[in-house]
């Protein structure tokens, strides 16, 4: 089903409606934005005064692009699955694809990497331009959560559309990334990701390339590391632990994103292909709507009970201008 987000007015409040299934994986940016900015920033008032919307990233510090790339040999591979879990996602059937050799990032693009890019190019993300992005409920304090309850996604009320949120302010205008420079950059749209990869002399991976990379050279494996979610009772990925969306036990060590160098997952030596953050691919979801782009891998919010999409064959989609607190990317390059 094609995801769509519309804004509707009820009692002079905004509610964002998501017509995706009950998952809420495909929260798309609304086409119209008529925020009452004065009302919003009044909500941000606290005993310490109004929160600053200025970035706290040190503009004088230079960060190196740290991503290594892994060569994936060209040949025939199997993608998709005959063990279809989510029929509407069109994750099957299994089929053969022939790929040329390509390189793919060993790690997801980090805040450090993206900061280096923006400092050299003065690039502004679409979330910065629009002035908002989507934040998960547990990253908002109770008072703010209650005040902003009418800015939720209707069918996924754990997502709040928060003004002043972008890659430098991932949980709202009073947050920063100073302690998360080695975490994946989030709140980046498909267009933002594509611009970064182009700057690096690369591109986004195709969906087929991404899935082949995910499986590490093996056929029909469910996860990057094999078919068991917890081999030898070991946590292999940053996914939701507990009861979604109210309690995350953090048994895997994280309630949100984790550093990009953790969770090595497959025989290609790639990290975080499942979990942590969704990753953009180059492909469109369908020819009917080329602006809907495929994303793969699931995120730290995925749980088998509601969004079983951290499997290699699983897929979802967002519009190319959408961003959220669990959406990132990695780059590819033709060999």
From TrEMBL:
Keywords: Signal. GO terms for molecular function: formylglycine-generating oxidase activity. Transmembrane segments: none annotated. GO terms for cellular component: endoplasmic reticulum. The keyword Repeat does not apply. It comes from the Eukaryota. The keyword Signal applies. Residues 1-18 form the signal peptide. Gene3D superfamilies: paralog of FGE (formylglycine-generating enzyme). Residues 67-333 form the Sulfatase-modifying factor enzyme-like domain. It holds the Pfam family FGE-sulfatase. Belongs to the sulfatase-modifying factor family. This is Sulfatase-modifying factor 1.
């Amino acid at each position: 089903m094609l995801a769509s987000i519309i804004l509707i007015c009820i009692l002079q409040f905004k509610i964002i409606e998501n017509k995706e299934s009950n998952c809420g994986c495909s929260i798309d940016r609304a086409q119209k934005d008529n925020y009452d900015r004065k009302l919003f920033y009044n909500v941000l008032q606290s005993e310490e005064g109004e929160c600053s919307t200025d970035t706290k990233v040190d503009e004088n510090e230079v960060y190196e692009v740290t991503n290594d790339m892994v060569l994936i040999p060209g040949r025939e591979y199997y993608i998709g699955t005959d063990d279809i879990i989510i029929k509407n996602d069109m994750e099957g059937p299994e089929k053969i694809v022939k790929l040329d050799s390509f390189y793919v990032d060993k790690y997801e693009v980090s805040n450090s990497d993206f900061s280096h890019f923006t400092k050299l190019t003065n690039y502004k993300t679409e979330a910065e331009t629009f002035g908002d992005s989507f934040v998960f409920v547990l990253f908002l304090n109770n008072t703010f959560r209650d005040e902003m309850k009418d800015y939720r996604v209707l069918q996924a009320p754990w997502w709040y559309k928060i003004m002043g949120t972008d890659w430098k302010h991932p949980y709202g205008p009073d947050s920063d990334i100073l302690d998360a420079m080695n975490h994946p950059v989030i709140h980046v749209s498909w267009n933002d990701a594509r611009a970064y990869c182009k700057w690096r002399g690369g591109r986004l991976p195709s969906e087929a390339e991404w899935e082949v990379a995910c499986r590490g050279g093996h056929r029909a494996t469910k996860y990057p590391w094999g078919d068991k979610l917890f081999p030898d009772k070991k946590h292999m990925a940053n996914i939701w632990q507990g009861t979604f969306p109210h309690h995350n036990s953090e048994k895997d060590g994280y309630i949100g994103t984790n550093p990009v160098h953790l969770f090595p997952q497959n025989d290609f030596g790639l990290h975080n292909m499942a979990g942590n953050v969704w990753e953009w691919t180059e492909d469109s979801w369908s020819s009917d709507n080329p602006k809907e782009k495929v994303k793969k891998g699931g995120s730290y919010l995925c749980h088998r009970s509601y969004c079983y999409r951290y499997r290699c064959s699983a897929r979802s989609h967002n519009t190319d201008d959408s961003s959220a607190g669990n959406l990132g990317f990695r780059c590819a390059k033709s060999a």
